[in-house]
Every structure is written in structure tokens, then in C-alpha cells.
Amino acid sequence: MFQINLSGKTVVITGCNSGIGLGIAHQMGKAGANISGCANADNDDNFIKAIRQHAVDVVYTTCDVTNETDLKNFVDITIERFGRIDVLVSNAGSNIFLGAEKTTTDEWENNMKLNLTTHWKLAQLCKPHLEKTKGVIIIMASNHAFNTIPGCFPYNIAKTALTGLVRSLAIEWAPKIRTIGIAPGFIDTAGNQKWFDSFDDAAAERQRTIDLHPVKRIGTVEEIGGWCVFLSSEYAAFSSGVTYLVDGGRSALMQDS
């Protein structure tokens, strides 16, 4: 069976303790990579135990990604533990759906800081280490960067800007570093289940969403993790400066039906 081997490589993952971030960590661990993960929880024994089942080394750091001191500490801990960084998966973020009319300036700035600025600042901190390993940056955008729905402002603005960040880093930091984006569509996470649960009939809304996808299901965190493993490997070495939309064909529909 074809399998990508990332043994000996160190992968940095933000927002690692749940959802897509945890799925990425699992798949990277399966591929043999050591994992340095961070999230804003005080500790995460479950994350550590989950990744160690893959017989790789793992370290967890409590980190507020909007705090530059925390980000620097996270990178320093990674280097102290592993001595290298081969892949940065800049994943942490949050849905901030407020609408264009009612969003305040503070809410706009907080959204931009979390969902845009932090990706740039962490990439800066990792750059000297990634240059040494000819590494890879993977930035987690969203299908909202390409198509969106009413009420998702200002989240969709930040995610759209991330596609520009991917292009700029790919151009400016090449050829030593490749930079790629992934824009997941509807992925089966606790956060998306919370969205379904906001409707009177959560099961019906979930099914309605599934029916809007040509593949007739929503995605899994393991699938996004698999994309990250592939894009980190030698088989994707000619890929840089592009953001891949992974949405089960949802964006191919001209209109909902």
C-alpha cells in the first residue's frame, strides 16, 4: 500500500487539540512525523495520548496565538525539543459571523488578528528554521474565501486575505520554503455540529447540508489531515502559491436546489 513517510520530520500545528487541528496531528503522526502542537487550553493530556499511539514524539504548548510572546515561546519550545521545523500547519482560528452592518471596529480588528495576522506572524517566526530544512508552510483558509453566505462577515474577509498571504509568502520566501493553502468546506467537527444544533431541527439541517454536496456527505478531519500529509511530502514538491478548495464539490453548484 502506498504510504508517505515523514519520519524524522517535525510538524508544528496550531489549534491542535480538536477538530481539524487534531485530525491533522493524527495523520501527521501516522506518517511518522514528530508533532509540536499548541492550543489555548491549559493542558491537553488527551492530545498527547492520542498522538503518542502513533509511536512518535509529541510536545504540547499552551498558547494564545494572538499573543506574539506566546507564539515565540511556542516556536522556542519546539526547537528546544526537536531542533528543527520541517512543516508549519497554521490552523488555529475561529468562526466570527457577525454581519457587515453590525460588526464593530473592535470585532473587526479581533477577527483580523486571530484569523489573518497570527498566520503571518507565526510564519515569520518559523521562517529561519524552515529555510534550514527547505520546509513547507500550510495555511488553513476556508471555502468562505471563495464563496460565502449572508452573515459570515468579517470571517470571510480574513479567510479571503489568507489566499493572498499564501501567494506572497510563496513568492518572497521561495525557493527554500513552499507555501500552500487549504480551504476546507463543511467538515464534520464539533463546531459545525454546534451550527446544526442552532436550528430547530438539527438532523434536518444536517441532511439539507449534505444534500447540497455532490458527494452526498460532508468532509472529515482525517481527510484534511491527509491533504496536509501529501502537501508536506516530496510528491507535492512542485506545488506552491496556491490554495486548494476541498469542499466535496459544493462550490460547483450554480445554485442551491
The main sheet comes to: 7 strands, parallel
Average predicted confidence as pLDDT: 94
Provide the CATH top-level class of the largest domain: Alpha Beta
Distance between the termini: 39 Å
Total strands: the figure is 7
Pick out the low-confidence regions. none
Helix content: 40-55%
Strand order, sheet with most strands: 3-2-1-4-5-6-7
Supply the number of structural domains: 2
CATH superfamily of the largest domain: NAD(P)-binding Rossmann-like Domain
Task: Give the count of helical stretches.
Answer: 8
Second-tier CATH architecture of the largest domain: 3-Layer(aba) Sandwich
| Structural class category | alpha/beta
What is the radius of gyration? 18 Å
User: Might you state the CATH topology name of the largest domain?
Assistant: Rossmann fold
Give the overall shape: globular
Listing every helix as H and every strand as E from the N terminus to the C terminus, the arrangement reads EHEHEHEHEHEHHHE
Beta percentage is: 5-15%
Quickly describe the structure.
The chain is an alpha/beta fold and 257 residues long. It has helices at residues 19-30, 45-52, 68-82, 105-133, 155-172, 190-197, 202-211, 221-232, and strands spanning 10-14, 34-39, 58-62, 87-90, 136-140, 178-184, 243-246. A seven-stranded parallel beta sheet has the order 3-2-1-4-5-6-7, with helices on both faces.
Structure report:
The protein has eight helices and seven strands. It is α/β, with parallel strands linked by helices. The protein has two domains: 10-184 and 221-246, 3-Layer(aba) Sandwich (Rossmann fold), CATH 3.40.50; 189-218, no CATH class. A seven-stranded parallel β-sheet has the order 3-2-1-4-5-6-7, with helices on both faces. Helix 1 packs across helix 8 (221-232). The radius of gyration is 18 Å and the shape is globular. The model has no long low-confidence stretch (mean pLDDT 94).
